[in-house]
Amino acid sequence: IIQKQLHFKMIIKIKRFLLMMLGFIFTGIGIAGYILPGLPGTIFLILAAICFIRSNRKMYDWITKHRLFGNLVKDYLDTGRMPLKAKVLSIGSIWIFTSISIIWSPYGIIFISAVVIAAIIGTLFILTRPLKR
Length: 133
Prior knowledge:
The protein is mainly alpha-helical. 78% of the residues lie in helices and 3% in strands. It has helices at residues 2-35, 42-53, 57-64, 70-79, 84-103, 109-128; strands at residues 82-83, 131-132.
């Protein structure tokens, strides 16, 4: 029984560590998204907050209380709603960069199919989110 408890505790520590590392990676990409054109920032910060809620409460609080993006992240996590402007920009960005990837892709049909499928899934996900009024 003691060995099983130690094994269980070790699995929990590894899970927390992996979630924390993912959270930091998503935070970095999210912040870069606020600087680089074409890279969405808020979605990666939402993913970071989801990772941090289970691994690092201090970082979760930092993201959800940040003056620039905290309200967007917190509101989405609480309600799942998106503003119309965010939906339009997100879907537009998805399809602009999907088109660029298809047109200038040096890869074959498998790559192009995967990109189009990912774009369709992303679009459907965004369209199914409730509208923030």
